[in-house]
């Protein structure tokens, strides 16, 4: 019987000897099922078939499934019984096949079941064994041979090979043929068609890659992914592979860990760079590695550069120019800004960026252009290799200081970029820019914002900036006014943060190209110029301009300006009433403490911040129908809140936010839109939450922390969208009812009078964290004695493990462990589940897990039995805790390897060990076992109950009664853990 090719009786007569047709059919088959019966040896036809099958198995790796039908396999293996007369030339073939694990009909009670099992076995193997599909592809063998060499099948390391090229050149065909050739040599294999997956199932998200890693780490697997178009897919596959690529080992050499990480970072995890540097560094001592670091920080390896240069040299002259602009000035810039900045350069930016992206020389992500560090260094070096008089960009700090101090700038330079944090002293000649009439981009910036004093001196007669400037970014500009001869008609961006400017210029200047003006931190700025002719201005940033008293009455064209940021302009007294900004979307007046009124702005405002202002009223016809964010922290006016109510017009946004933090005068719950998504009412005077809050069906985040007058919450409501609730510091709150079945985080720290909490953990399937720290009157014993499974972290104040946890230890050492005695019946299922308590001190963020070594004292022969190691998934401690706290959570360890369940081994003991970071203080920990009745791996029928005698013996209590949830409920819970996502 052959699994793929079939030969009918009409094609070959049974009386004839085995012919070429049957031989070919055997060769073309992927699986051969050999059925031995009592009369098998008497058929020369069958024996000749067997010879050919064994030959194909030895030469081609063909799979063989033997079936012994009413026959002892030893008769075939040893040629006894009916097979004693078999000829010598068939003896080896018979022995060979009989030694293969097959099917013996004698041990099957029902032959139909055996036939079905064989059929399923064949189907399963066929699914794992690809077809032969390369016969008709001419010239494909050369490609297969090259790729096989690159994969280095004999190597122990993980290998990754990419096929890259334009559509239609045969990448998929080559990949499929290679997959079919190689898959039989691996323990597992899969071919993923990303286009098909995306079309059928949409995006697939893996939240816990470590689980996959755990299953595959000891297996040799082959993974092909076709139609990869997103770097995220490759990043998820590579993970820590960058370090392995660099060192050619699974871990760095001893003592070289930090050096490997630093060099990998400098190379940007680019495989080419890792391979080149790895080959030169392997075998070198640590001193050599350390000496190399400055070179990598300042430049690029020659071999890497030579390879990258090939891609650059293949570009057109226009694309090369755009590549150099990005490498030298605009890596990380917004695409829209880049197009404006290069608008009159003669370059086709749209096509150029696409060409560079197609060659993977840049990436366009979220509206920004990004270039790999090594490619950027290569592009800068291309510019530096030009003769000084022909250089387009100046980037070296010393060269720039020399050029500007001596006034000898080359005429062809179009861009200068200097991080002023790199220099201590800077002198600019009065004629520094006179010869650079083609200069378009001047960027003297502070990258780290160190705010240290740089000794920058401008010649007293400095009065000239090139007229073609499109980008003027000069942080800490030392002059009180802009040069009088400066004509900013071509400016697209004017950025002069932390300058000494008092005023930009006198009069009205035409600024048709200006898109962004940022003078933030210019503490001496008294007034702004008339901007009525800045007709394309979109963003105006003046935050921390402490001396600014007023804005000009003539603000730019009302249909373009979208953002005004006046944060902390603490002396700003008025905003001209005549301003009408129809396009304004964002207005930030945070900290404008002298501001008492605001004019009627755009109905399109979506973000309004008037925190810590003296605004007393809002225009009565100020419509907020598009408002998505309103912040009114610490407002001084008692009447302002009444003026902005009701907020029932917020109907066009599904998740608007309201921040009313710190308004102690607010005593009643605000009348707000039912579409509200985030509501911050912290430290207000609210005494009661009204029942109509249940109508806020879109409310996801509710902050009521510090509301010291709040005493009760409504019962019988279910805010289905709510996932974060903060009631910390509500010192008069006495009870807490169920408020949302979808809640994820509840913070109730410092609720001193809280006595009762109604938390039905069996229904709160998404709950991840509850903080009851400093809840002095709360009966915490009743909470952590919940008989339903806890899928969340519970936090309490405390100094020691409560007596409820009857297995306890102390110490922070990772070697500290507990030995727990198990009843013979306690591990009849495949999970060990226990409730754990950790006593922690001053923790911020930590990750930990439990390991369990299961073993028997003695087996039936009086010898110590083989043990088994299992472990929990990683758990993550996220909240900040101060002082000594208890962390309570439920954990489980699966007693299985792959699909092989080991629970039936009837272990009598388990040594539990806690892996916990040494840098955090773990004072002690303990556990209490949980029952596992009918809660089997992959088939959970009930919620487990916590029930253990004080002597430590586990009792199997059935999953009956109100405390047990349904199948769906438990399945959902078991899939959610507090884990570290890798």
From TrEMBL:
Signal peptide: none annotated. Keywords: Leucine-rich repeat, Plant defense, Repeat. InterPro entries: Apaf_helical, C-JID, Disease_R_plants, Leu-rich_rpt_3, LRR_dom_sf, P-loop_NTPase, TIR_dom, Toll_tir_struct_dom_sf. Residues 954-982 are annotated as: Disordered. PROSITE patterns: TIR. Residues 1-126 form the TIR domain. One of its GO terms (biological process) is signal transduction. This is BnaC02g47170D protein. It comes from Brassica napus (Rape). The gene is BnaC02g47170D.
């Amino acid at each position: 019987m052959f699994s793929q090719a079939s030969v009918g009786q009409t094609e070959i007569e049974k009386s004839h000897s085995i012919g070429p047709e049957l031989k070919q059919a055997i060769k073309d088959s992927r699986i051969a099922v050999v059925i031995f019966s009592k009369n098998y040896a008497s058929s020369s036809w069958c024996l000749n078939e067997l010879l050919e099958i064994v030959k194909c198995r030895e030469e081609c790796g063909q799979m063989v499934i033997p079936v012994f039908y009413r026959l002892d396999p030893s008769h075939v293996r040893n040629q006894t019984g009916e097979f004693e007369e078999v000829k010598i030339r068939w003896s080896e073939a018979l022995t060979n096949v009989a030694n293969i694990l097959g099917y013996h009909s004698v041990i099957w009670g029902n032959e139909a079941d055996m036939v079905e099992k064989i059929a399923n076995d064949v189907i399963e193997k066929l699914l794992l064994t690809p077809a032969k599909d390369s016969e008709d592809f001419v010239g494909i063998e050369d490609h297969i041979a090259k790729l096989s060499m690159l994969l280095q099948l004999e190597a122990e390391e993980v290998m990754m090979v990419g096929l890259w090229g334009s559509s239609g050149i045969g990448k998929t065909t080559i990949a499929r043929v290679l997959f079919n050739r190689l898959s039989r040599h691996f323990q597992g294999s899969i071919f993923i068609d990303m286009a098909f997956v995306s079309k059928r199932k949409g995006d697939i998200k893996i939240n816990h890659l470590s689980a996959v890693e755990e299953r595959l780490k000891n297996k040799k697997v082959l993974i092909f992914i076709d139609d990869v178009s997103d770097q995220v897919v490759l990043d998820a596959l590579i993970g820590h592979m960058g370090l392995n690529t660099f060192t050619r080992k699974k871990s760095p050499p001893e003592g070289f860990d930090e050096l490997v990480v630093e060099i990998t970072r400098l190379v940007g995890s680019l495989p080419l760079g890792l391979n080149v540097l790895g080959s030169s560094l392997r075998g070198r001592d640590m001193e050599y590695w350390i000496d190399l670091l400055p070179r990598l920080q300042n430049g690029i390896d020659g071999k890497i550069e030579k390879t990258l240069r090939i891609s650059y040299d293949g570009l057109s002259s226009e694309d090369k120019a755009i590549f150099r602009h990005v490498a030298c000035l605009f890596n990380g810039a917004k695409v829209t800004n880049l197009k404006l900045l290069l608008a009159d350069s003669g370059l086709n930016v749209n096509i150029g960026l696409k060409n560079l992206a197609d060659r993977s020389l840049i990436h366009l992500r979220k509206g920004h252009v990004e270039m790999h560090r090594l490619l950027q260094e290569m592009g800068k070096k291309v510019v530096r290799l030009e003769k000084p008089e022909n250089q387009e960009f100046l980037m070296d700090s010393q060269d720039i200081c020399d050029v500007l101090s001596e006034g000898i700038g080359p005429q062809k330079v179009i861009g200068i970029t200097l991080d002023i944090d790199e220099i201590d002293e800077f002198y600019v000649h009065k004629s520094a820019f006179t010869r650079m009439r083609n200069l378009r981009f001047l960027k003297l910036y502070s990258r780290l914002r160190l705010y240290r004093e740089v000794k920058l001196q401008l010649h007293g007669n400095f009065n000239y900036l090139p007229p073609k400037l499109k980008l003027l970014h000069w942080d800490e500009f030392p002059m009180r006014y802009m040069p009088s001869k400066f004509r900013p008609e071509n400016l697209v961006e004017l950025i002069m943060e932390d300058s000494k400017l008092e005023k930009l210029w006198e009069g009205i200047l035409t600024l048709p190209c200006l898109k962004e003006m940022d003078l933030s931190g210019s503490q001496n700025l008294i007034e702004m110029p008339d901007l009525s002719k800045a007709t394309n201005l979109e963003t105006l940033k003046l935050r921390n301009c402490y001396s600014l008293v007023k804005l000009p009455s003539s603000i730019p064209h009302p249909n373009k300006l979208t953002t005004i940021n006046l944060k902390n302009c603490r002396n700003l007294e008025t905003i001209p009433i005549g301003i009408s900004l129809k396009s304004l979307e964002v207005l930030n007046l945070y900290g404008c403490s002298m501001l008492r009124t605001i004019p009627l702005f755009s109905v399109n405002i979506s973000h309004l911040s008037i925190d810590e202002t003296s605004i007393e009223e809002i225009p009565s016809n100020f419509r907020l129908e598009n408002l998505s964010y309103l912040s009114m922290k610490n407002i001084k006016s008692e009447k302002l809140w009444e003026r902005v109510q009701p907020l029932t017009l917020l109907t066009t946004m599904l998740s608007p936010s309201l921040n009313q933090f710190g308004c102690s005068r607010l005593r009643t719950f605000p009348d707000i839109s039912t579409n509200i998504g985030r509501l911050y009412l912290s430290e207000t005077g609210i005494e009661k939450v009204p029942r109509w809050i249940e109508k806020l069906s879109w409310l996801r985040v509710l902050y009521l922390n510090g509301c010291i007058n709040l005493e009760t919450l409504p019962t019988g409501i279910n805010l289905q969208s709510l996932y974060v609730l903060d009631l910390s510091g509500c010192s008069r709150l006495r009870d807490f009812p169920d408020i949302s079945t979808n809640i994820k985080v509840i913070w109730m720290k410092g609720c001193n009078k809280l006595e009762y909490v109604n938390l039905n953990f069996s229904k709160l399937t998404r709950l991840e964290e509850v903080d009851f720290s400093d809840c002095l009157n709360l009966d915490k014993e009743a909470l952590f004695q919940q008989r339903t499974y806890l899928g969340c972290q519970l936090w309490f104040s405390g100094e020691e493990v409560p007596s409820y946890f009857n297995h306890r230890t102390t110490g922070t050492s990772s070697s500290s462990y507990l030995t727990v005695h198990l009843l013979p019946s306690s591990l009849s299922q495949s999970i060990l589940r226990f409730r754990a308590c950790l006593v922690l001190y001053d923790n911020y963020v930590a990750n930990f897990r439990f390991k369990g070594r299961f073993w028997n004292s003695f087996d039936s022969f009086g010898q110590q039995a083989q043990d088994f190691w299992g472990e929990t998934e990683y758990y993550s401690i996220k909240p900040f805790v101060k002082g000594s706290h208890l962390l309570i959570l439920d954990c489980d360890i699966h007693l299985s390897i792959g699909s092989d369940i080991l629970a039936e081994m009837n272990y009598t003991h388990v040594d539990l060990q806690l892996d916990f970071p040494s840098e955090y203080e773990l004072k002690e920990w303990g556990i209490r076992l949980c029952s596992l009745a009918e809660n089997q791996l992959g088939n959970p029928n009930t919620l487990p109950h916590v029930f253990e005698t004080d002597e430590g013996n586990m009792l199997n209590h059935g999953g009956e009664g109100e405390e047990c949830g349904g199948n769906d409920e438990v399945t959902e819970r078991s899939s959610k853990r507090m884990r570290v996502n890798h």
